[in-house]
Design brief:
The chain has 388 residues and is an alpha+beta fold. It is built from seven helices and 18 strands. Keywords: Membrane, Transmembrane, Transmembrane helix.
């Protein structure tokens, strides 16, 4: 049963790949272009500290966390070579990249595309969606962004035509590219580094699953004397599809676990907050704690938190405990002024619908609500006031 299911899955996969090759060859516009490639010897390091690392160039990020590599193109038409491929010798400290280019169509004006992903050993990018990726190429550069003192080891760079099998690589790379967890990661996982990817892995695996089941049905009809149809075989094909789909997720999960360990292991609770994504918010709330304690040593002092951002409001209220905190989710403004009294504190976290009138020293919100306050501290992320 397992052998039959595995064989049908492999045949279904080959059928889907063959179909993609046929469709790609019929739609390809740049099939005659041979592509351009540059080894480590052809690269110019514009920014960063370079050194040779075997058959690769190792570049240390500068104090601003940047390393820039530039190459000279051989006047190839960029629209015929939309696939950009970077080959790294080892896993790098790159957190994001910016691709810049100049062509006969763009003149002296540089064009940019930012990619907010951390690449692995090999990185593919389809530039066909960029309208300015056209004309005879003159220069091509990649700006690597990462921690100051970090490094990237680049072996080669190339631009290739969107023909089979090259046309598959950007999609496969998009499925496998690691993207650190963000706020939305708790709610969903699309299986790719960007929602704009050509094909999501769930859809691709669903097509392969359907093809494999059809292969099994045809085989059972043609070889009905030797192969009896069993629903359990269909179930095993489904399980194999699930395992292949889960393979990409498990790879990202292991990489995220490694990143989390590197970021937080061995640190105190305060140091972990400084290392996390809430560091700026945590620093502001720490200053709010100090300001409230300096004015009122009692934890009974009321601190009202207001923000148009649910995340900032909830996290801000959480960090303020064990203070006597008021936070109302989905309420973009403060309660009616009649419920507030002198000595209360108001923390406005950006973005906020409450406006501070600097000339008259009051908060204005709602239709006619005005609250007389004095400013205690202010930053780009938020401000603390005390009701007079």
């Amino acid at each position: 049963m397992l052998r039959t299911a595995l064989l049908c899955f492999i045949v279904g996969l080959l059928i889907v790949i063959a179909g993609l090759a046929v469709v790609d060859s019929s739609q390809s516009k740049g099939g005659k272009a041979s592509g351009e490639s540059w080894s480590y010897q052809d690269m110019r390091v514009v920014k960063g500290l370079p050194r040779q690392a075997g058959k690769a160039t190792a570049i240390q990020f500068d104090a601003a966390g940047q390393a820039i590599v530039e190459v000279s193109a051989r006047q190839a038409l960029m629209e015929d070579l939309p696939l950009l491929h970077l080959d790294f010798k080892e896993r790098s400290d790159v957190l994001a990249m910016i691709v810049s280019w100049r062509s006969a169509a763009t003149g002296e004006r540089l064009q940019y595309r930012r990619i907010g992903v951390s690449p692995g050993r090999s990185f593919w990018l389809n530039m066909a969606s960029e309208q300015s990726w056209t004309g005879a190429a003159s220069t091509l550069a990649v700006i690597f962004l990462g921690p100051p003192g970090g490094s990237v080891v680049l072996e080669s760079m190339e631009i290739l035509p969107a023909v089979f099998p090259y046309s598959m690589y950007p999609t496969l790379a998009d499925w496998a590219t690691f993207v650190p967890w963000q706020h939305s990661s708790i709610n969903s996982h699309i299986g790719a580094s960007s929602i704009a990817t050509t094909t999501l892995p769930v859809l691709a695996i669903a097509v392969i699953l359907l093809a494999a089941v059809l292969v099994y049905l045809v085989a059972a009809l043609v070889l009905k004397e030797r192969l009896r149809f069993q629903w359990s075989v269909v179930g095993v094909i489904f399980l194999l599809s699930w395992i292949v789909l889960d393979f990409f997720w498990q790879g990202r999960l292991l990489r995220q676990a490694e990143l989390t360990r590197e970021t937080f292991a061995g640190k105190s609770p305060a140091e972990k907050r400084q290392a996390g994504g809430d560091r700026e918010l945590y620093n502001l709330i720490t200053a709010v704690h100090d300001a409230v304690d300096a004015s009122d040593a009692s934890d009974a002092a009321r601190v009202l938190v207001s923000s148009a951002s649910d995340y900032n409001g909830m996290r801000g209220a959480y960090y303020l405990y064990p203070k006597n905190v008021f936070w109302q989710r989905h309420a973009k403004i403060l309660p009616d002024p009649k419920y507030l009294h002198s000595g209360d504190y108001v923390l406005l976290l950006q973005p906020s619908s409450v406006i501070y009138d600097t000339q008259n020293s009051y908060l204005r919100y709602g239709a006619m609500s005005r609250l007389k306050v004095k400013l205690l501290l202010s930053s780009d992320l938020g401000s603390l006031y005390q009701v007079i």
